[in-house]
Amino acid sequence: MATSKSSNDQNSGAVAEVQNGEDFRVHVFSSSSELLEKLHDNWSGKRKPYPAMYSSIFGGIILDPEMMVIPIDDHMVHRGHGVFDTAIILDGFIYELDVHLARFLRSASKAKITSPFSQSTLRSILIQLAAASQIRKGTLRYWLSAGPGDFLLSPAGCPTSAFYAVVIDEDFSQCKEGVKVITSTIPMKSPLFATMKNVNYLPNVLSKMEAEEKGAFASIWVNEEGHIAEGPNVNVAVITPEIELILPFFDNILSGCTAMRLLELAPKLVEQGRLKSVKTANLTVEEAKGASEMMYVGSTLPILPIVMWDEKAIGDGNVGKLTMELSDLLWEDMVAGPETQRFPVPYP
Question: Among its keywords, does the record have Lyase (predicted)?
Answer without folding.
Answer: yes
